[in-house]
């Protein structure tokens, strides 16, 4: 068992490296990095996780003396790894947020802006609704446990104090934006298709009966049908969110294995 009272200088530096990665991950992660989680809670969680993982952390291909000599470079490396892994965990909530944006714009509710506490930005009502639903689904399937397990396994897959860092996975991270957009369109497809059909129908109606003010009449019809499709497709949306969490986790572990 590790004697915390007799730690050497190199062991203290090693603990600092572990804490740097943990703090960078907590601050940038999807769930723990939310503005709803206060800063003291984030700091306490980072320190607690670092203390628990320190005795079992896998050391890289350098010794304690090298840690002391290369502390600045190793610290920058740990920050990059922690921020990158934390950013990847946000793929789920980025997709959910884009689904809300596209749905609101297609239905006609994009003008109603309100504060989104999950992302800390201004968003429309549909974005806040989908973000809240996504958070509930994320917690229901123990997504926060996946995040903790991911950062714990990262110390095994990406050893601390290793002087090398493979930058290849960072190029693959850029392709995750394409994946996010494809998933967003798939999840918005029922609403987009419905609104397209409604607009076509209202356009034909406007040509057939010019006396009808299509611009004014189409707005309540579009909102009513769009919201109806949204609530009908909620079970399918929850299923897609479950699959999205799995995709996010698989991408996260895939990047860790190649760093």
Provide the succession of SSEs: HHHHHEEHHHHH
Q: Structural class of the secondary structure composition?
A: mainly alpha
Tally of DSSP helical segments: 10
- Taking all Cα atoms into account, the compactness measure Rg is 23 Å
Strand content: under 5%
Largest sheet: 2 strands, antiparallel
Assembly state (oligomeric): single chain
Shape, please?
elongated
Distance between the termini: 30 Å
Q: Please give the domain count.
A: 1
Give the low-confidence spans.
Answer: none
Secondary structure: number of strands? 2
Spatial arrangement of strands, main beta sheet: 1-2
Provide mean pLDDT, rounded.
Answer: 80
Task: Walk me through what this model shows.
The chain has 259 residues and is mostly helical. It has one domain. It is built from ten helices and two strands; from the N terminus they run αααααββααααα. It has helices at residues 9-28, 39-53, 64-69, 71-89, 91-107, 125-140, 143-157, 168-208, 214-232, 234-258; strands spanning 113-116, 121-124. A two-stranded antiparallel sheet has the order 1-2. A hairpin with a 4-residue loop joins strand 1 and strand 2. Helix 7 (143-157) runs parallel beside helix 10 (234-258) and helix 8 crosses helix 9.
